[in-house]
Design a protein that fits this description.
single chain, about 400 residues, alpha+beta, 13 helices
Length: about 400
């Protein structure tokens, strides 16, 4: 008996019991569909997190002030105002791998335009900040060195802030008030979206660092202290090596002894991205593993139905053997029947999975990404399930005694 004849006989047997065949395939259909949908959700989340982290800037290292201990209690980072504009200048001058090092400070303030007001983050920056964060000015001009040196009252506004203050109007050359000080809007920032920790990066106003210090005030003990230093590493340089060079330079400048901890924090965005990607992969594998349980349950259902089928068709098997069918022909026939069940269920499951991923994307507004590898893996796994769980019933049928089979009632 050829493989084609076995497939034809298998399809005929499935057509005889359509409802039972459909119910048997249900586990495989749900399993394949669930695997494809879950992997699509996980892959979409992975891409989304990567985009959010990369929106902070590429090849970026961030330096934050360190922590301080008070009465035995260790406070969080930022409580020790030790990083300064001079640190940023030294990093840019003394480390060849650094393309730009931009100090900045941020504080919330009420911003007023006409009879509208909006509470947002007001950030004092230097001209290199936009380059370090890969931030584009979509309209108007960026802040220049002359704005910094002249303590100019000019501002760049993010998309969220512009929408809340100006609506559909043009923000350029409009005058806003920050702490009652008038600022002229000279540029509008391109949209950045949410950061990986959920902060709206477009809800911000950027002004020259010198002007920000003038209106927000400074720590008299450390007037040149800043809140963040954003460091962009030149392409082709090793991020880990550059991070160690920055750490060594800051420890030297802060005169820290070998036994003393750093009084600053360094965040390497590449490391954060790698960690997030690994976490997302683990979550995707976990979701796929949970969904695969349905495939195993479907395989057990196929074995159960095939055993019932062997029992019901015992006389048919005996008759086939009596007219010359060999044991391997019977084995092949039932194995093909079980595999055909799995493959048809797998095909329907693929369609269900694609539809489910699209439905999740539409209803939950959650990005999904269906990879061809996931479809091939789920479909191949379904076929393997059919072969594995169909082998025992097929072997049982192939080993029947023809005489006993013909006597079976």
């Amino acid at each position: 008996m050829t493989l084609l004849q076995s497939v034809r006989i298998a399809l005929g047997a499935l057509r005889v019991n359509k409802l039972r065949s459909a119910l048997t395939m249900l586990g495989i259909i749900i399993g394949v569909g669930a695997v494809i949908a879950m992997v699509a959700v996980g892959a979409g989340a992975q891409v989304r997190v990567a985009e959010q982290i990369q929106s902070l800037g590429s090849n970026l290292i961030i330096v934050l002030p360190g922590s301080v201990s008070a009465g035995g209690l260790r406070l969080g980072h930022g409580t020790l105002p030790r990083i300064t504009e001079d640190d940023a200048r030294a990093i840019a001058l003394e480390i060849p791998a650094v393309q730009v090092a931009a100090p900045s400070r941020r504080a919330n303030a009420q911003v007023v335009f006409g009879n509208l007001n909006w509470s947002t983050g007001v950030q004092g920056i230097t001209p290199g900040y936009l380059e370090a964060r890969d931030w584009v000015v979509s309209a108007g001009r960026p802040l220049g060195l002359e704005d910094l040196e002249g303590t100019a009252k000019v501002a760049l506004v993010g998309q969220t802030t512009a929408q809340n203050l100006f609506g559909d109007g043009d923000p350029l050359e409009q005058v806003i008030r920050i702490k009652k000080v008038p600022f002229t809007v000279v540029g509008v920032l391109d949209r950045k979206g949410q950061s990986s920790w959920g902060q709206d990066q477009d809800d911000v106003i950027l002004i020259p660092l010198t002007t920000e210090k003038k209106i927000q005030g400074v720590n008299q003990a450390s007037p040149r202290a800043v809140g963040t230093i954003s460091i962009k590493i030149r392409p082709g340089h090793d991020m880990a090596e550059a991070e160690e060079q920055v750490r060594a330079l800051l420890r030297q400048r802060h005169r820290l002894q070998a036994f003393q901890d750093d009084d600053f924090w360094i965040r390497n965005i590449a490391d954060v991205l790698q960690t997030q990607e690994e976490s997302s992969k683990v979550m995707t594998y976990l979701l796929a593993a949970i969904a695969s349980v349905s495939l195993l349950v479907g395989g057990i259902g196929i074995m159960n139905i095939m055993l019932v089928s062997v029992t019901e068709r015992t006389r048919e098997i005996g008759l086939r053997m009596a007219v010359g069918a060999r044991g391997r022909d019977i084995l092949l026939q039932f194995l093909v029947e079980a595999t055909t069940l799995s493959l048809i269920g797998g095909l329907i499951g693929v369609v269900l999975g694609l539809g489910a991923s699209r439905g999740i994307s539409y209803l939950a507004e959650w990005r999904t990404l269906v990879a061809p590898e996931a479809i091939a893996l789920a479909f191949g796994f379904a076929a393997a399930i059919g072969i594995f769980f169909g082998f025992y019933p097929a072997r049982k049928a192939a080993r029947l005694d023809p005489i006993e089979a013909l006597r079976y009632e």
